[in-house]
Every structure is written in structure tokens, then in C-alpha cells.
Design brief:
This protein has 20 helices and 9 strands. The protein is an alpha/beta fold and 461 residues long. Bound molecules: S-adenosylmethionine and iron/sulfur cluster.
Amino acid sequence: MIPTKEVFAIDESEIHALIRDGRGGRHELMRILARAREAKRLTLSEIAALLRVEAPQDLAAIFAAARGVKEQVFGKRIVLFAPLYLSNRCANNCLYCGFRRENREAHRRSLSIPDILREAACLFELGYRRVLLVAGETPGEASLAYLCRAVEAIYRETPMPIVHVNAAPLSVEGFRRLKEAGAGVYQCFQESYHGSTYRRMHPSGPKRDYTWRLSVMDRAMEAGFDDVGMGVLFGLYDYRFEVLSLIAHARHLEQTYGVGPHTVSVPRLQPAPGAALSEAPHPVSDEVFRKIVAVFRLALPYTGVVVSTREGASLRDDVVRMGASQISAGSRTDIGGYADGAARAGTQQFSLSDSRSLDEMVHAVLDAGLLPSLCTACYRTGRTGEHFRRAAESGMLQEHCLVNALLSLAEYLERHGSAESRAVGVQRIAAALENVSDEALRRRLIDRLDRVRQGEADLHQ
Ligand code: SAM
Ligand code: SF4
């Protein structure tokens, strides 16, 4: 008999019991953090204990441990990317979103393929090397075909090396086609794992089906996506419930497919023009947000944590030091915003808090002592899914990715960097050369660095 795959479901009473459990204390916290520092798999009960922590000195201990694990697994690298919004047409009515069907103020627009190519080319010119396509949900063959055509056209007609997708759940067959089109990571957020909250927030449209959404990653993985991106929308329900549920979900993927999520995103509810929800029913403070990022880092040490421009500059500068490994930069959530320059009125999904450009982010990440990375080597060499995980576990990413990140930074500075980011970047690359033992790689880096310096000298002539 062919073994059937376990159907994943959330046991709400078990999650609530974990949240209520009063055990803990400082001694227990130190024991859990010692295990986390060794990248040991934490139990849900241990994760619940971390989420209960509120005392400032205990939170500081969690942040320090998260910082350590982040450095151990990802080094100083912070991956940068931009979302590319394709369409704000949507059949759903998510109460929190400006794209929802009942928002009569919205000006509906779907980019044509030439428009999409202009956007992707514009992002490439700015220095981006990975884009995340984002779209509302319009069911049917036409919208799947549109999404696949968009991915294929970007690879065919522009030099953009990596295209990820955040779009509505598909069938296994739909995912096969999207994968064949060349999509990298497939990303979809559960929004809320709490059944009645989920149903209240999604009153109509295909997204109302909680189970269809909860099983989306199984279908994506069955169809061959070995890199999936999960997330919840913080602010809809108790953050502890959401974090524990998402980690249970990630464990299910690890057990069933041998690989967990490639990334976890932590969007926090923002005001959105035309949304039905004016404020978060369960607001998440900045301090709790930091804790969420740190707990994900400790609970899923080999999974990237993505923080978007929904969050403000100083909070983002903070969380990149202690857990986040990928950030968007210079983002626009209106349709056609990059190539047009001016905002497209009535097409914005939600308000953004960090409006710094890619170059300003490169500078800020360097200033924080970290290394902005626009590297695409893993995707070019097929190091995805389980291969990526194994490389991360073996520590191979540290040395290998350091050099690739330095090369990609040098290339960025040479072609796109401002005088300010070049000045800081050149110093950082020169200092990092000491840690590169491989002679051939050192040579390549020195050549690149010379070109950046030459470009700077030319500018001053
Ligand atoms: N339409 C698809 C879907 O809902 O899965 C994919 C794209 S949707 C534009 C991407 C994500 O934006 C959603 O999954 C949701 O978490 C987030 N989002 C929607 N409204 C938001 C808001 N007001 N504030 C912050 N994030 C929001
Ligand atoms: Fe549509 Fe996605 Fe916005 Fe919901 S979150 S209204 S599905 S675009």
C-alpha cells in the first residue's frame, strides 16, 4: 500500500495549552538558550517558554542568542530584494488589504508583459538581482498563464537572475507549471492559523477556504518547489498562537518532505487605503516584534527571516543585527511604480514605513557592520531546498557565501553605488580580504575592488 502523507492541521487547544503553561523561569530560559545556540531543534513547549519572556534582561538574553545563531549560520550577510507588483485585481475581500474586491476607491490595473519587463529592467538597472512578483487573486486559467508568462518573460528578456513569486495558492498542476516557468521561491502567508479569526478576516472569495490555504505548501512541494516561503500577518490574532502554529507547520514540512521553509516572513499589519480594518485587533509592539524575529531565528536556525519595508527604518536596522537575514529595499506596492517613478494613485496595497532606496539600504547595512548581499550563486548553481539546507548545516555557507556576497557587493558598487556607499563598501571589502584563504577567489575580489576604485577615481577626474 502506498503510504499516505499526513494531512497537516492545527490543534488549537494544544497551542492554547502551550501558551497557558506557566513553567519557565530564568534557569529554564538559560537551558533553552544553550540548546538554541547549538542550533538544536527546540520543542514547541520550549518555544512557548521563549515567547512568554517579558523581563528586559531575559529579552536581552534571547536577542543575544539570536544574534549568535544568525552569525553562526548566515554570517554577516543580509540579502536584499524588491517586490514587483503585477496586478491589484482581486476576487477576495481580506478585511486588511487595499486590493480587496469591495474597495471601490481602488483603481484596478494589471501590468502588461511589456510593462512587467520595464519594471524588471528598471530594478536591474538600480542594482537588484532578485525580484518577488506579487499579485492579487483572480481565479482561473488566464491568471495562472499570466503569472507563468511574466516569470518566463523576465528571464528571457531581462538580465534579472532570480524571480520569486508571492501569489494565491494553486493546485499541484498549477504549481508544476509555475515551477517549469522558472519561479524560484514560492511564497504564501497563512495570515492567521486561528480558524475563526481567519474566517472573519476573509469573508468571501476563494481565500475564505482555510484548509485550501493551510495545505498550499504541501501542494507546492509535491509539485517540485523545494523552496517555499511561509508567513503570518501579525496583528490579526495572538502573536504567540501564530508563531507556535507556523513553527508546527514548518516541522510538518521538514518531516514530510525532508526540508523546511526556505524563508519565514513577518509582515505586521499596516494601514491600507480602502481596507475595512482600520487597526490591528491584536497589535504587536516593536519590542514584541523584535522577540518574534529572534524566536524564529532560534526555532528555525537555517530558515531565512524576511523583514519588509512595512517596518520603520530604525526597527529594521535593529532586527537585521539579531535575526533577519533578508530585507526588501526601495519597495513600491503600487502597480507600475518603479518605471513610472511617480506613485500610481489608487493602486497601493498598504502604507510603507521605510522608504530608503536600495543604495541607502546598502549603506545602512554596511554601517551596521553587516554585509549587503545581491548574490545569486545558490540559484545559478541549483543549491536550493535540501542542498541549501545541508550546505547551511555544514557551515559551508559561511566561507563560500562570504566570498560570493563580497563579489556581488563589489559588482553593485562598481555599477550602481553612490559615492557614499562606495567609500564604505570599498573599506569593508578590503578588510574582509584577510579572511579569504582561497588564492583564486582572493584574486577575483582584488580585481573587482580595483575596478570599483578605478570607477571612483574616474568620477573625481
Ligand atoms: N494575493 C495573494 C495573497 O493574498 O496571498 C498574494 C499577494 S498579497 C498582495 C501579499 C501579502 O500582503 C498578504 O499575504 C498579506 O499578508 C500582506 N498584506 C495584505 N494587506 C496588508 C496590510 N494592510 N499590511 C501588511 N501586510 C498586508
Ligand atoms: Fe487579495 Fe491578497 Fe489583498 Fe487578500 S491580501 S485582498 S487575496 S491581494
